[in-house]
Amino acid sequence: MSIRVIRDKKSLSPLQAYALKLAERLGGASPVFLYWKGRVALYALLQAMGVKLGDGVILPAYTCVVVLNAIFYAGALPVYVDVRPDTYCLDPDKLEEALTDRTKVILCQNTYGLSADVEKVVEIARRRGIYTIEDCAHGFGGAYQGKANGTFCDAAFFSTQWNKPFSTGLGGFAVVNNQDLIPKVEALEKEKQQPTLGETSLLRQLIRMQRWLVRDWSYWNLVALYRWLSLYNLILGSSQGGELDDIAMPKNYLKGLSAVQAREGLHRPGPFGRAAGPAAQECRDLHRFPGREGQEPRGPRTFSKPQLPEISPAGQQSPNLPVGGRKGPGPPGRLVLFPPASY
Ligand SMILES: Cc1ncc(COP(=O)(O)O)c(C=O)c1O
Asked: Which domain holds residue 168?
């Protein structure tokens, strides 16, 4: 679903309305395409960029395994580049030595809402004719140098999975900024599978259960239960059992977003208002870097050795995270790893 096909605003389907809202939220200059998950959006972008067997795709050394898998499914070779210790994002100073004639794409990940040195990465890539993709799975609602995350590279993808800055249960979307790529992503729309009735009704139940059951005190137990059930394919997991152990592409991987997810995206407080849910709070808590309040999302921070993020003094918020959320003191110095290892 692309906003390019939308003409008459009054008769929009939930999918069209959602795509339009997202595109408007990102400045309205680029079309949005909706997918079942963020990883699927990445896979579609790699396909549209013509990534094929033997091509190299650069990614930050600290990422989610499903990103790596999507690269394998496209037949490419993932090449890790180390991250900066202050942002956990790809270090542009280490980038050039990893580039070869086979490098086709550079993935520029926004980690925990902290922007990479994206302009520098894009500049290096353009000089060498390499595509760039912003991985904004953690970055919706943030900005870098005054520009919305997702608008810097040839394309970007976002995740709206359970614990992302805003959630549609599962879900993802791509924003295509490079005009030449738009027809290629549009062409892939025809190949997209539709989520089955079983999948969408299960997801609807899970979203309802999340609303009723997830509280501060129950959150981590429910997360553990959800992961355990996913591992044995007893529930509609963020990843199905086996998906993380194998590099074989799951069946019907290239799948679109369902109307259930689109409605959730449109009506939940979050994407177009305040950020909701424990995940958003967790994300904010984790990013309370001392001294970041009111600053641009990043700036060179020099540490003599790698530092872990600290829980800051009360009430600070990363400027690169969605607005809103709890005021007042954060939890006492507890470091929560996010995203957790077992995705
Ligand atoms: C950095 C990063 N990229 C991509 C993804 C994939 O998103 P999804 O679970 O929607 O496929 C994740 C998921 O947690 C992530 O953390």
From this structure: 3-189
